[in-house]
Specification:
Order of helices and strands: HHHHHEHHHHHHEH
Number of helices: 12
Shape: globular
Strand content: under 5%
Radius of gyration: 19 Å
Amino acid sequence: MRKLLVLALVGLVAQLVDGSLGMAYGLTSSTLLLVAGVAPAAASASVHLAEIGTTLAAGVAHWRFGNVDWRVVARIAVPGALGAFAGATFLSAISTKAAAPWMAAILFTLGAYLLVRFSRPLRANGAAGGLRVRFLGPLGLVAGFVDATGGGGWGPVATPALLVSGRMEPRKVIGSVDTAEFVVAGAASAGFLIGLGTEGFLLPTVAALLIGGLIAAPIAAWLVRIVPAQLLGATIGGVIVLTNARTLVRAGGLPGGAQWLVYGLLAAGWLAAIVLAVRALRRVRRARATAQATTGSQVPATPGYATPEESLPLATVER
């Protein structure tokens, strides 16, 4: 019972992060399950089955708050589902021993990407025009495959790509990616069901993660408007990097002294990323305040993301 309560809490926190950032539910949950000794395929299968419920709740909540662009959802969800099904089939076919470092490497890489991505301002330009199928299709395919094989990755791949395209508001990027993930999670679960059978799903774990995620989904859809994404992204990225580094270090057979050196360097990099994230957040806020003082009007923004005016160097805005 204690373990299930902890998992429910993890599901709650993971959904709060995912609903606020548009990423990291699968990364956070899968990382915890791997640390607890769950086989990679079973961990990814269980997380994706839980995500069917959490992403449905998140999608409804984001829709109610006006955070969803249904054209983007339609164009990215189908290729995402195809990629997720293929990834689930691939992960189900390889041995647990071979899958553990593979999955840890994917999670580590995505965690490092979060650190780098959120250590500087994210910029958006809602007036730049629509996104085309030739961009969204391949993006969804790759993100879906990485998501299923890594136990997470749909958000870390899809959300930053849409943000840096500069063609959507940050809150609509997050809401659309979360909503499309419902289809992706369903396809991944179908792939794992075919590859592993029903025994591949840890149903008590699924239930605990689902309960926590359902509680957090509507709260996260509201928090996306007020939570500083810079700090949240840098923090969760460091947790994922350090946790999965343990599996990679052991797989590499490094001696004890070298292991602690690696952990120390990674911790220093995490601290540096948080410092840079704080500086980036302060710069965004200063630029926003300057723009408001210059124009005399309120500048709407998602916390932690730069508006088009803030994408300019600070000195330019001040001039």
